[in-house]
Amino acid sequence: MRIEELPWRSPDAFIAHYGDEPWSVLLDSGGPINERARWTFFCSRPSATLTGDTVSDWARLPELLPPKSAEHTLPFSGGLIGLASYEAGLAFEGIASRHAPFIPGLSVARYDGAYVFDRQEKRLFWSSYCDAPQPLALPQCSAPSAILPTLDFIPDFDRRDFCAALRAIVSRINNGELFQANLTTQFRASIAPALAASAVYRRMRHASPSPFGAFFNTPAFALLSASVERFISMDAQGRIETRPIKGTAPLGATPAENALIAKALRADEKEYAENLMITDLMRNDIGRVAQLGSVNVPALCTVERFTHVHHLVSAVTGLLENGLTALDLLRATLPPGSVTGAPKHQALKVIDATERSARGAYCGSLFRIGADGALDSSVIIRSLVLKPGSLTLGAGCGITTLSDPEREYDELCLKAAPLLGLFKP
């Protein structure tokens, strides 16, 4: 084990200097500093990588896990960082998507250490579970980020088509086929080859700081995420927590207006029902791998404020069954319940039949597993995927029998607006 305290450098400086190297990754906490958004990690130059599209590729992941070690002083000292796409989650549920994938289902790297940023105390460390030396020279202060181009994003669904698809899902709900489904669309824009993922992310993290932001630059694509949603976390003792988000409202102009908006969101029958169903779904998913009787719901439908919106957030906890690992927990719960529907398996089939393209990284999960066995992960929402020649952004909303099509489309646009706004004059 090696821990070295270093002179402070900002995460932005690391992205500016090293972000465009293949397999550079920043797990980025932004916004108000609290225990869920205190730590940021930068990793680069991995010792091993794995990419693939099948369930059998997931079976190879234990080979990449570092040897299990004692609990560490810092929350992450290297290990696995990876992305499981939405379509990988479908495969775990035994569903073959009708859409052609546009990124690998699984992209994972093993890092021998991590640069660890303590936002609360403004301290920087190099921490390695295997006593590895630093792979990088400390960057100097970064120059201002580049001006981004003006882009035209075209969605899979325009307002009329989205509302028609939503009404069709509501009809299937009313016929008893399912209770809820998450309907999404992808916005796409053509880009010049010179547009660097690091430049886009530096502007993005400044405009939309978020507790589960991420920059994950693979040889095939780059994920730029401003996610506000934790997926699954588990500490070294096997204590599990997930915090599903369902229910969205805009921010007000004053504290008094925000208080009224939060009160209305808390009392909204449709949003409450949506959150309740997803919380129950996550209880079921965690129950697949948790010790009997250990699953609880310590928080239900509380209102939390984020950079651009209010959300209803719940919490589900449990204790991992003896003999299982973080990989078992992820496989049992992917794709995230908050972006699928209930019953989950049927919702996945309805979604795939209704939507017009693969989701890819969007609605998948970015995760880290440390040498101590601890896990943290995010639901990939509020995100961009950059590939040569194209940039995509996903947005969606949960559909129940109470859904109003126009209101749901407005919610979708509210979620997409901060990222689309990066590319407006």
From TrEMBL:
InterPro entries reported for this sequence: ADC_synthase (IPR005801), Anth_synth_I-like (IPR019999), Anth_synth_I_N (IPR006805), Chorismate_C (IPR015890)
Pfam families documented for this protein: Anth_synt_I_N, Chorismate_bind
Domain spans labelled Chorismate-utilising enzyme C-terminal: 159-415
Gene3D superfamilies: Anthranilate synthase (3.60.120.10)
SUPFAM superfamilies: ADC synthase
Signal sequence range: none
PANTHER family for this protein: AMINOBENZOATE/ANTHRANILATE SYNTHASE, AMINODEOXYCHORISMATE SYNTHASE COMPONENT 1
Name of the protein this chain belongs to: Aminodeoxychorismate synthase component I
Source species: Asaia siamensis
